[in-house]
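Final report, results section. Input specification for complex C-07:
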Amino acid sequence: MTGEYIAFFIFAFMSITGAVLVINLTRVIHMVLAMGLTFLGVAGLFLILNAEFLAFVQVLIYAGAITIMMALGVMMTNQHHEKQVRRRWHSFFAFVGAVTIGGTVFYGIYKTPWVCNPSGFDENNILTIGERMFTEYVVPFEIASVLLLVALIGAVLIAKREGDQ
Amino acid sequence: MVPLSAYLAVAAILFTIGVFGVLFKRNSIIVLLSIELMLNAANINLVAFSKFGIYPDTAGQIFSLFVIAVAAVEAAVGLAILILYFRNRGTININEMDIMKR
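Structure output:
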């Protein structure tokens, strides 16, 4: 049992616990905070996988920005409790569908003989990521920046109060 | 060395919980959060294969960065739509979103 295993179990437990709490809690704001726990656990998994920059981005964008934005959205839409009125067979079919997808994926994971070659991986890969991002992947990078700008303007336009001008 | 299938199993569990949340939850904000959870599970797979694949490569991490950017965009626009809907209709319960069905 090395330190890597212990760290992996801690972070995997964090992320799965947060996800299960999102399903089971009753107050919506608690669900959003539990989702923050999940995002932090996933960031830890990225750290174990030698993706330090991605772990940093995950903490910054997901655990920081998206969780806080969703919490603000919950406060603005003012729903204290989730209504328990639901159609009778709905939750059953939701459960069956999710378990079917999960079971198929698990079957695939455990039936495939994975060929692992972690020795060829560059341990200090932040420099490599930066160089490839601005040479090989520069067109997707610019398209992503345009997409962010469009989403910024679009979100402001959509959520603007209509009688303000 | 933690094996590859352990990371894939964690990602599969997170994805399954995300699918269940999308199908089961009635609050639209929690449905958006469940979609984020599924995108996160896909990111774990991309990063795990960028380290443990037959040809280890940082391209998986770069693709995860783009996925994170698109996920942030989707969360922002989705939340704007939900706030507009709440202002007009007074609810964000997904069972009552039936204007275009009537």
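Chain B is about 75% helix and 0% strand. Chain B touches chain A through 72 residues (CB under 8 Å). This concludes the modelling results for the funded period.
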